[in-house]
Protein 1
Amino acid sequence: MPNGNTEAKIFTCTQSKELAIKIATAFGVPLGNVITSTYSDGEFQPSYEESIRGTRVFIIGSTNPGPENLMEMLLMLDAAKRASARHITAVLPYFGWARQDRKDKPRVPIAAKLVAKMLEVAGATRIITMDLHADQIQGFFEKPVDHLFASTIFLPYLQSLNLDNLTIASPDMGGSKRAYAYSKALKSDVVICYKQRAQANIISHMELIGDVTGKNVVLVDDMVDTAGTLTKAADLMMERGALSVRAICTHPILSGNAYEKLEQSKLEELIVTDSIPLKQKCSKIRVLSCADLFADVMHNVHYNKSISSKFIM
């Protein structure tokens, strides 16, 4: 049972409203009422239009850039803290700014650590998120972090395809751990792409480690941004004799001309979650909702039940 008679209330930031409605429905409570006032210069102010004193508040919002998404989450957290909510959980389907998780050259920030501290200072007493860019980002928080894996969504879909000669692929060396975890669950082979970047989002060279001849390949990654890596990897694998190439990416950032790249590529399909709303339609994108996963975990958190099964790849 929850502590005392603590009531659970679910609210959403603007960018995640569609997903939040699904989560609230699955959780079994109505989505809370928040209005946002906007000044002419772009400054905005969210306001809870119902009492949240003594409640457990879940605030749903991905913090993908632009910066207003993160700012809205911070303001919502601060408002909940000042309104005397007992527990304040930031539900971040996508934890933005996570690629800056270390100093990879002199005189740069560690943005992921900065964002973690801002969330805590703003009032978050717990974080629920999914497929962090790097697992160690959990260590940037002093509050409890529930790091969920979207594999619980993707694996049943992959198994339903009944693909022969299935091979899991990582689009880079950094994603090899994730690829091996999927291959273990699916009892398949693994190949890895080795890439070199001229600069951020620009690949100068890519090579394939492993054999894909006669294989149905599934690329696995935590996010897809410009789609340059995925489309280049798919084209390379088809040139090397693959029967088909699909991709699984949890977070569909899809910036720049990513949609055009996907349509023109040799990818069979791109499977994503709805952690970030799509900007436009694409015939090659299949969206699997993460609403039930988050609703289940939020329910268990509220009622002090185990959620360890959601951490298993």
Protein 2
Amino acid sequence: METVLKKIQLLQLMFACFLMFGQVSVKRLNDPSIVAQHKRMTFESWGDWRPYPKYFLGIQTNFAYATVWGMWSPSINRHYKEGADIRPLKTSGEQNLRFAQLKFQEEDAKKINAASDTIYKRSVQDLAHWTSATVDADPLWLLYYKRMLKPITEFPDTPQNFTEWRLNDEPTYEALKTTGTLKRLQEELDLIKEKYSMSRSIDMPRGKRFIMYHETLIRWRTFVKELRRYNNRTMLLLDYKNILNSHLPTALPTPWTPASDKGIVQNVIQQYKYRY
């Protein structure tokens, strides 16, 4: 029975202590000086220096004010009261500046993320054009280079006659073969086809691939132009030959031996008498 009474008394004592400390804590939270400090340090105004001073016959009589803000207060308190406005949440306060800087950092982070996404997407696109497995699907290849480079694939790798070399006739082919020109043309053809094959089969950046396409196309045009020049030259020689054959007499003239210079002049006059 005594034990139960002791427990009840202990509980009553604890409850009383709880009520007493609870009231004290509430009183401290509602202390006017603390409230003024909160207002001063947040956003309302720089002031309300509680506790207030009290004077009697010009003498400070409020001990609390004298020890907090007055002559008996620490120098740091007086400097704080008389110093600049250091509210962290004022318009130009330090905390507001931090909030603004944080906002700017968030915007920069969004821009960085957007740029990173763009770089990633561009890298994926570049990777799609990097490999040789997707070269046939490239728009620029389909629109232009496929058609312009098609004659390279249609030209024989090792032409054996004038038809495969795209020459006009057999004499032209034999002449080029005799002079060694066909050997040099074959070497140039091998280089063109090898460059074309490399541009289609090797993994490389899209820009470099199209540069190789363009270089191959230029060399191919030069090669075709040289073949055309040989054909034109042969045709020109044949035309000259036909012209000469048409103007030369079919039989040799009878030899004559003039007796004197007078005879030579008369013979020339007789020959060109009706031509002019």
